[in-house]
Amino acid sequence: MSVLEATAFDVDRVRSDFPILQQTVWGKPLAYLDNAATTQKPLPVIEALDRYYRTENANVHRGVHWLSQRATDAYEDARKKVQGLINAEHDCEIIYTRGTTESINLIAQTFGRQHLKAGDEVVLSEMEHHSNIVPWWQLCQDTGAILRVIPINDRGELCLDDYPSLLTEKTKLVSVVHISNALGTVNPVTEIIHHAQERGIPVHLDGAQAVPHIPVDVQALGCDFYTFSGHKMFGPTGIGILYGKAEHLESMPPYQGGGSMIKTVEFDNITFADLPNKFEAGTPHIAGAVGLGAAIDYLTAIDLSAAAVYEDSLMAYATDALNSIPGLQIIGTAEEKVGVISFVLEDIHPHDIGTILDQEGVAVRAGHHCAQPVMKHFQIPATTRASLTFYNTHTDIDALTAALHKAIEVFN
Ligand code: C6P
Q1: Does the beta carbon of 365 lie inside 6 Å of ligand 1?
Q2: 399, 32 Cβ separation under 8 angstroms
Q3: pTM exceeding the 0.85 threshold for the entire prediction
Q4: Is 46-300 a domain of CATH 3.30.365.10?
Q5: Torsion of the alpha carbons at 280, 282, 287 and 291, rounded to the nearest 10
Q6: In CATH, which superfamily holds the domain spanning 3-32+303-411?
Q7: Local confidence pLDDT in tens for the 412 residues of the chain
Q8: Is 96 within 8 Å of 280 (Cβ atoms)?
Q9: Cβ 131 under 6 angstroms from ligand 1
Q10: In the chain, fewer beta carbons within 10 Å around the N or the C end?
């Protein structure tokens, strides 16, 4: 990549949109490298939340009054923005949830319960986040269905050769992560979907780490379900998305019962609302949806392809910098990798590393990253994880590297 390409993205201008990044922590400039856990929020998102509560707040879909109409319009406009972002065919295929976790639980408890019986199988991978394991495990406990697992290799890539043989007439769903939060691996989802759909098996993709980094087109992918969280893509916490093909969502039972999700209620008969309301019981996170819409506007307004080129060059810089530290081993060295660098350093516990880094103003995550099977594969209890996005800088990486040298000094 040429220097020109790498500098085409104006990171200083973008950073000025994120007030939280201007802070110091323990007297040091903040180097926020925990973006896979949650991203920071740009001013337009903060202002949209403020404006919503100052000028538009009311309940949605209920009132005839002016404010309620405004709140409903804002809530539904945001749904259309999500539809545009992932190129869903219909806006009713976009269901608001609390986040990826709730979206996956919704699929498991509705579609899963409807389609799985004893002996049936759900295919996952060894690199799943617990959110894409536990709901399926719970469902298997209840139904007698079985989990089958696509293994990973020592680079942290899926062993795709083993995948087609896992697909049988017993397989009722393939549910895999698009980009791994623990390793950064970008999975070959087109191939995964192709093999499954050749056999008529639906596919869910956990897109929690993908939507903030790469363009996602659910129609081009052809996946049946796609899930992600607002807070990992510069939007508020407590709002997430379940995309499902209308044909599935229409035939699935509701997840929760309550207001807004019904057509008629009598004590001996209840009929349910049409999509998407059938899956949105109770008062939703209206401000969250509005903030998510503002985050999508923000992402659309900055040059995302220039941001991706910049992010790639920063990943390469960070990988080289960390590889040059004696005793440091990167966990997850996939050919296709985005945003995440997990590592172990000598025998220093990641929590100790994380604490020392914090003293230097460097925010990373240390632990199993809710991906214990990944840790088991690499026979380690935990990693330290630096996760990057387009507002990070070479200075952030230099601060990380310097702080790691300090950690080595402290522990030797
Ligand atoms: N990963 C991380 O630090 P929620 O919490 O519902 O917004 O997202 C859950 C989730 C599901 N799938 C993947 C791939 C994820 O990365 C996450 C969240 C955070 O890696 C918190 S554990």
Answers
A1: yes
A2: no
A3: yes
A4: no
A5: -20
A6: Aspartate Aminotransferase, domain 1 (3.90.1150.10)
A7: 444 444 589 999 999 999 999 999 999 999 999 999 999 999 999 999 999 999 999 999 877 999 999 999 999 999 999 999 999 999 999 999 999 999 999 999 999 999 999 999 999 999 999 999 999 999 999 999 999 999 999 999 999 999 999 999 999 999 999 999 999 999 999 999 999 999 999 999 999 999 999 999 999 999 999 999 999 999 999 999 999 999 999 999 999 999 999 999 999 999 999 999 999 999 999 999 999 999 999 999 998 899 999 999 999 999 999 999 999 999 999 999 999 999 999 999 999 999 999 999 999 999 999 999 999 999 999 999 999 999 999 999 999 999 999 999 999 8
A8: yes
A9: yes
A10: C
Q: In 3D, which of 136, 128, 230, 225 has the Cα closest to residue 179?
A: 128
- The alpha carbon of 350 and the centre of ligand 1 are apart by a number of angstroms equal to 19
Ligand 1 in reach of 128 Cβ (< 6 A): no
Q: Rounded distance, CA 88 to CA 337, Å?
A: 25
Rounded to an integer, what distance in angstroms lies between the CA atom of residue 179 and that of residue 374? 13
Q: Which residue has the tokens 């617990």?
A: 130
Q: What atom in ligand 1 is closest to the CA of residue 99? A: 6
Q: Which two tokens stand for residue 295?
A: 């985050």
Q: Where are the domains of the chain?
A: 3-32+303-411, 46-300
Is residue 370 annotated as part of the catalytic site, yes or no? yes
